[in-house]
Specification:
With 204 residues, the protein is α+β, with helices and mostly antiparallel strands. It has helices at residues 40-47, 99-106, 142-149, 172-180, 185-188, 200-203, and strands at 4-5, 15-24, 27-35, 52-62, 67-80, 85-89, 93-96, 108-116, 125-136, 193-194, 198-199.
Length: 204
C-alpha cells in the first residue's frame, strides 16, 4: 500500500492530505483525505441554509503521463435550520446532527473504484492524481444546479467533455469560475496532488 502525505506548513489552504491506492476485489481503488475544506465562510453559508458543493477529481496516469482513467465525484451539503440537521447527498444520502460529523464524512473518500486491475500491466508504473474543491451555492443557483451536479450519470462520464444544460462544462476549474469567479479559485480548490509511482504487483 502506497500513501502520499502532503507537506506541512500549508496554512489554511485546502489540500489533499493523503492518497492511498490499493487492490480490492481485483479492482484498483483509491482512498484520500482532505484538509481545510470548511473555512468560516463555507460554514456560515451552510448554516444559513444554503448548500455547498464538494467536487473531487481523480486521474490515473502511466509512467509516460498518459491519462488512463478519470473519475468525478460530487457531494452536496445542506442544513435544515428548523430541524437542526445536516444532509450530505452524493451516491447516497446521510444526515447528521452536528457539524464535526459532517466535516469528518466530507473530508475523505474511501475505496473509490478506478477500474479493473486486470486492464493494467502488472510491472508498469502508475500514479494517481487527486484534486478537491468546495463551492458555496447561492439561493438562485441552488436547486437546478445542485440536482444537475448530483445526477448519478455524471460520475461515469469524462470530466472535461460533458457539456450540458447551463452552458458550462462539468470541470472543476470552470465550475468554480462559474460560481465564485476565477480570481477566487485558490480559496475554494486544492492544487493537484499526486501519489508516488506504484506498480499493481506491489499492491497485491
Amino acid at each position: 500500500m502506497t500513501t502520499v502525505i502532503a507537506g506541512a506548513g500549508e496554512g489554511d489552504a485546502i489540500r489533499v492530505e493523503s492518497i492511498t491506492p490499493r487492490l480490492l476485489n481485483n479492482q484498483l481503488v483509491v482512498s484520500a483525505k482532505f484538509e481545510n475544506l470548511f473555512s468560516n465562510k463555507i460554514v456560515g453559508t451552510i448554516q444559513s441554509g444554503l448548500p455547498s458543493i464538494i467536487q473531487i477529481e481523480i486521474k490515473l496516469r502511466d509512467n509516460v503521463a498518459r491519462q488512463l482513467a478519470q473519475r468525478l465525484f460530487v457531494r452536496s451539503i445542506s442544513y435544515n435550520v428548523w430541524e437542526n440537521r445536516y444532509t450530505i447527498r452524493g451516491d447516497s444520502t446521510h444526515s447528521y446532527s452536528n457539524l464535526e460529523a459532517v466535516k469528518n464524512a466530507s473530508s475523505r473518500i474511501d475505496s473509490v473504484v478506478i477500474g479493473p486491475a486486470e486492464q493494467l500491466r502488472t510491472a508498469a508504473s502508475y500514479q494517481l492524481q487527486v484534486r478537491v474543491a468546495i463551492i458555496p451555492i447561492s439561493s438562485i443557483q441552488s436547486k437546478k444546479v445542485t440536482d444537475w451536479l448530483l445526477d448519478p450519470n455524471q460520475t461515469e462520464e469524462p470530466i472535461a467533455s460533458d457539456d450540458r444544460a447551463g452552458g458550462f462544462k462539468l470541470n472543476l476549474s470552470n465550475l468554480i469560475s462559474y460560481f465564485v469567479g476565477e480570481r477566487k479559485q485558490s480559496q475554494y480548490s486544492s492544487d493537484w496532488h499526486s501519489s508516488p509511482a506504484f506498480r499493481i504487483e506491489d499492491l497485491k
